[in-house]
Each structure stands twice: as C-alpha cells, then as structure tokens.
C-alpha cells in the first residue's frame, strides 16, 4: 500500500494571500507501519509485557527475548507468524520496502511519552508505539487462506488516535492484496467499546462460537502415545 | 507416534483350553490416521461438502477440487495448513512414514457404508472416513506456537466410535511432539454434547471470548489503500 503523504504547504498566488495555519500550535506526528524483523524482538518483548500488565495476566506471561527470537521470523513474512510494528517520529519516514503504511497526524498537544527512550527503534530517532501479530488461517468452505490476528496493542499514551484501526486496516489491506478470504480475531464479550469499534469497521461478532483450548498438563497427557 | 497393533491371538497351553471368542460375530475394523497429500483432494472436497450439508451451510460452500489443490499442500506438513485423513479397512494397514496413529476396533455389527465406493482412498482398499485440518497458531504470552483446528469431521456411519477423539488426539500428540504450547478450536455454544465431550478430553471452553470476522465486501473495502 502506498504512503499517505503529508498535505503540501499552501502555495501563495497573486490573488490569494498566504494563509497561516488556523492553529499555530498544531504538531505533526509522522507514523508508519512496517514489517518487523528479528532485531525488533527487544521492543516486541516489552510491548507484549505491557499488554500482559494491561490485561492483568502477567501470571500467564513467560515469553523471553530468547524464546521470541527462536519462534518468530523463521518464515518469509505472511507465510507464518508475522509482526507489523507501529512507529512514530517527529520527522517524516524514509520510504523503504518494509513500509506497509504511513500517515501524518496533526494534533494540538504534543504527546508526552515518558518511555520514549526504552521504546526507541533500533537506535534510530523513531519510537515504537504498538504492534500487531498475525498469521495465516484457512477456510475450508472458501478454500482460501485468511489472516488471524493474535494480538494488537498500542502503548497507552498513543491510544484514542486511530492507531488500532490503522494496524487492523494494514492487516486487512494485506489480506485483500493477497486475495485472502477473511481476517479474524477475538474480543472479550464484556468489552463493549471494542465490539462497537470492530462492528463499525465492518466486522461481524460471531456470538454463538466458543473457543476450546487444550493446554498445560491436559495437553501433555496426549504426548505418551508414542 | 507408534501404531497400536491388534492384540495377539490367545496362545493355548496344556493347562488352559483354547478359548473361543466370547462373541463369534465380532468384526475387526482397522483404522489409521495418516498425513494427507495433494492426491487426497477429491476425497477432502467431498468430506468438506458433507460437512457443509451437515451444518446446513451449503450456501457458504464455494470450495472446488481446484481451489483446494491450489491453496493446500504448498508447505511441508505442520508448518502451514495440514490435513490428517482417517481411513478404515477390513485388513491391517501397512506402516509407512505418513502413518500418524493406528487402532483396531472390534464391534458386533459390520458398518453399513453405502458411500464406500466414492470414498475409496486413491484406488486402494481403504475407505476415507473423516479428516482434520489444522495449522500453526501462536501465543505471544508463551512465545510458543500451537495448533488451531479449523475442521474435524467424521462421516455419519462412522460416528460414535471414538474417531473424533482419535483425530483430536492425533493433533494434540503432534503438538506435544513438537513442544507446542496449546491446541485450540471452536464449538457452537448450543452444542452441549460437543462441549461436554471436549471438556472430558481436558479442554477449557473459554466463555468470555468472541470471534470477530471481517469478510466479503467489508474486507474488500480495505483494499483500495494503494
């Protein structure tokens, strides 16, 4: 998908005086979504930990940078587990092959990101603000792959700015580009704001289906068959 | 996993008379689960169609043998979409590298399979009785892959004989073998028999989670971004 370039500055003409911005305190925040690589693992690990804290599920969190490095990025992008990183910057991003989507936000108050140093992206001036992890799934009725989104997360100070929608749209756009049949993910039934948001994005919330999970000792008990 | 060989015949000893089978009309049915290949697509297509009929969802069924052939079996087994085929036979199966699990059932009434000819497996004497389609998913908290089961189906005349459990156990056993963290699938909330069956197998039914699905025109609308 092409980049959404910032609007050009107004061009003065003899008939038209130079227009000052209506709000001189407006700040531009450049954002991009790009394909993650193994060098992003330290930031991805911190984001997953923040997600566990947010969901009050740190007792289930056992990922380490090493275990993420071993299990992610073993296949070409989109063929298996794939991560998109959301980055923000005070300056425009260079366009490169890993860029999926860019967008410029204009807002009145600068964002106070107290963790910007620890979320600096690979020593660059860009700050990691969120991520989405997804992988192919398959519909037998359609005989087509789709994408399943396992996690979508935006750091707290960057929320309510459309970044969640931007990450989800990036995955949906990639699915369309690849001719895939659907994009799926899960939501907690009491999270009515999220459900409303997803329905406004065009998703169906499938009320009758329940997820079954076999894990831990119950799963291990199936391992003795050999 | 190793094959569960049929029990040896009773060995007569001088102290012990030959014991006749308690029920002389008992029939042996040899069963195996094996990895599917692209040559199984005609049978897989018929099974998916039968599943659509059973679920009264034929209006959503658009898979063809050609579309299944194009989208399945493009990756080594277990790395992407993987199919296990359940076969039955009146004679023992030869053991080969594609065999995942075998089992011998003894039952009093022979199974009346009226579709046995159209479900004959690649011109052999074996009959295809069911399948399971699954693929890797990923837990960020565990930093481990798992398996997601998209479909599990047993043809009607082979139901209530433990084949569903056998297919599910085969996937769970494979997950354990690969060091994976979990196996997941979905069930309809009103299907209380299935829920009871899965819970008895050790699965948790996650009551709070709902699946969101973006498909059709709603998905296509995300494709114009460039």
Automatic annotation (TrEMBL), chains A, B:
Xref: InterPro entries: Acyl_CoA_acyltransferase, Diverse_Substrate_AcTransf, GNAT_dom
Annotated N-acetyltransferase domain residues: 70-225
Swiss-Prot/TrEMBL keywords: Acyltransferase, Transferase
GO MF entry, a single one: N-acetyltransferase activity
SUPFAM superfamilies: Acyl-CoA N-acyltransferases (Nat) (SSF55729)
CDD domains in the cross-refs: NAT_SF
Coiled-coil ranges per UniProt: none
Region (Disordered): 1-23
Pro residues bias spans: 1-15
Gene3D superfamilies: 3.40.630.30
Protein name: N-acetyltransferase domain-containing protein
Organism of origin: Coptis chinensis
Organism lineage: Eukaryota, Viridiplantae, Streptophyta, Embryophyta, Tracheophyta
């Amino acid at each position: 998908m092409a980049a959404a370039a910032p609007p050009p500055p107004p061009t003065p003409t003899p008939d038209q005086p130079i227009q000052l911005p209506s709000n001189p305190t407006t700040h531009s925040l450049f954002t991009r979504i790009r394909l993650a690589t193994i060098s992003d693992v330290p930031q991805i690990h911190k984001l997953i930990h923040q997600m566990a804290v947010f969901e009050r599920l740190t007792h289930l969190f056992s990922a380490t940078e090493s275990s993420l490095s071993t299990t992610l990025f073993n296949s070409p992008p989109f063929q298996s587990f794939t991560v998109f990183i959301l980055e923000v910057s005070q300056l425009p991003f260079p366009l490169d092959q890993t860029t999926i989507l860019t967008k410029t936000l204009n807002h009145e108050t600068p964002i106070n990101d107290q963790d910007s140093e620890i979320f600096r992206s690979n020593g660059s001036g860009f700050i990691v603000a969120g991520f989405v992890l997804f992988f192919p799934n398959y519909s037998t009725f359609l005989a087509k792959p789709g994408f399943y989104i396992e996690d979508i997360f935006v750091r707290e100070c960057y929320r309510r700015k459309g970044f969640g929608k931007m990450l989800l749209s990036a995955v949906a756009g990639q699915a369309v580009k690849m001719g895939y049949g659907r994009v799926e993910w899960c939501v907690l039934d009491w999270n009515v704001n999220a459900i409303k948001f997803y329905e406004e994005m065009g998703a169906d919330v499938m009320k009758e289906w329940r997820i079954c999970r076999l894990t831990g000792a119950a799963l291990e008990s199936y391992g003795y068959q050999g």
